[in-house]
Amino acid sequence: MNKLLILRTFLIITQLLIFASCGFVEDDPVAGTAVLEVADLESDCEVDTERIKNIFSEDVKADIACIQQQLDLFRYVRRQNQDLLTKPDIEKFIRQFFEEDQQDDIISGLDLLFQLNTLILRDEPDQMQVKNIEPFFELLRVVNKRAVTIFDNIEVMQKLKSDEVELFKKRRKVLEEEFIALSKEILGLVKNANGPSQSINIQKFIEELSKDVDGFEDFQKLISSLLFVKKLFLGGDRNFINSNELLRAFELFPIFAFRGFDVYLQKEEFFNTQGEYYESIADNIEVLVRNVYEHQNEEFILTVTDIHNFIDELYKESDDDTDETDEGIFSIFRNSEGDSPSKKEERDILKNIVRSFKRDIIGGDTEVFNYSEVEKTVALIIIGARTFENVTKLNDLVEDINDKTPEERVIIRGSFVKTFSELSKKARELIVGNTDFPKRMRLLKFIQSIAEDTDYIDLDKELLNSLFSMKVAVVG
Q1: Contact 155, 222 (CB under 8 A)
Q2: Which of 99, 117, 346, 370 is within CB 3.0–4.6 Å of 328 for a Cys-Cys bond?
């Protein structure tokens, strides 16, 4: 994947403008050069174009400074407007002086560069103000500095064991501080941009940036599906993002990045009990949900197919996959005999659950979630997470109870009754008065559908029917 196509384009632009300003326009450009020599321009720096590709994992501030030093030569290039760098001027230069087999790739990268500049620094499409070169490179320096620390921490945290909890907590704190600092520094630069809000087609932008990815068609499908996240949290058109929405994204970045990685990096063995572990997950989910953008109730947000595409990606085999087993990911699907579905079987189970959930629990169009239905889904996810948290807390209380003395059992029984009462009260608070909670659910049909779709969830159908008959008799 060519992750730094935009940055590489900047290097190419720098090179061609150096040629123009020094009277070298009659020379043929050197193809495939890894290091740009700029000594003839009274500069002693070199830019290693291979090293700078590691901007997220290696300190490349010297290379960034060197590139910026050469971009200062823009003021010597004759243009219609000395305050502007325009895409047509550079494109014309590329067509005239670069080899034909290079031109399309360079111009494609040039287009991405100007789109990004338009979105972040609010310049008109296909042009960049010379004064915006400095903030653009300051943005690169900030990203490089913070990203190196962030990814170093994540790499270390992924490898920590259960006896390294204190080190995990320290690294977790550093990670949170780095996310906050990165957001603050980027906002300081972006908020100074003048001009009206500009917009770009984010789907086409990401697809063009990622066209070298292996299995691009599948990746393209995934990106298209995941754009519902942009609409859900930033508002606006699903396929477009504007400068004001980008500001909101940077403001929310510390929350989403930290909470998202927290769920990803936390391990059950880092907690005293299983209940504490699931409480942490539920807390993180609630924080994320509080930042959902408010839409009109009937506004389209996502489809069942979007979720299915994400599930496909979750179970997609990777060349780096070292897991030799074919067992599914989630222990909840393990039956009473200890058998687990294969990854492919589990993938299909999850897809069927999503479809049944939309049809029987949420209702409405069986293929589409509007905003009010997303709110209902989120409410149920939170209730489900809290319920699972509470059940594990009760399980923690009675764990190994047969090994306890009679006196200890009496104490545990008292704690169990007290905890059960508290958890029941919390459950009522979550449901009663919650306007997002579905008023009507075909719960029996939903559970029966799940049971019919898999042999790995043990459900007694007669018992289920009996329980729901009791529900009708007691509460109607």
Answers
A1: no
A2: 346
Q: Which helix (H) or strand (E) holds 162?
A: none
Q: What CA–CA distance (Å, rounded) separates 417 from 233?
A: 40
Claim: this prediction has a pTM higher than 0.85: no
Q: Exposure pattern of 133-168 as b/e (b: 16+ CB <10 Å)?
A: bebbbbbbbbbbbbbbebeebeeebeebeeeeeeeb
Pick the closest to residue 265 from 393, 142, 186, 179 (CA basis). 179
**Distance (Å, whole) CA 13 – CA 73:** 11
CA distance 353 to 290: 25
CA distance 153 to 177: 12
Q: Which two tokens stand for residue 94?
A: 């590329």
State both tokens at 159. 């490898």
Among residues 66, 65, 68, 73, the alpha carbon closest in space to that of 17 is found at: 73
Task: Please list the alpha-helical segments (H only) found in 341-433.
Answer: 343-356, 371-398, 406-431
What are the pLDDT tens digits along the chain (476 aa)? 444 444 455 544 444 444 443 433 333 334 444 343 333 334 456 767 667 667 778 898 988 887 777 666 555 556 677 788 788 877 776 676 567 776 777 677 778 778 888 999 999 998 888 888 888 889 889 989 999 999 899 999 989 888 899 999 999 999 999 999 999 999 998 888 888 999 999 888 888 776 665 565 666 777 888 888 899 999 999 999 999 999 999 999 999 889 988 888 888 888 887 778 888 888 888 898 888 898 998 999 999 999 999 888 878 764 445 455 677 766 666 666 667 778 888 899 889 989 998 998 899 999 999 999 998 888 888 877 777 777 777 777 777 777 888 888 888 788 878 877 776 776 677 666 666 666 677 766 777 776 666 655 555 555 445 544 444 444 44
Beta strands 199-201 and 127-129 are: unpaired
Give residues with Cβ within 8 angstroms of 104, minimum separation 6: none
CA distance 113 to 100: 21
Q: Are 22 and 76 in contact (CB under 8 A)?
A: no
Distances (CA, A) of 361 to 16, 147, 190, 380: 60, 42, 43, 10
Which position has the token pair 């020599």? 37
Cβ-proximal residues to 290 (8 Å cutoff; 6+ apart), any chain:
none
Helix pair angle (243-265, 165-190), 10° resolution:
180
Q: What is the DSSP code (8-state) at residue 442?
A: -
How is residue 216 written in tokens?
Answer: 């691009």
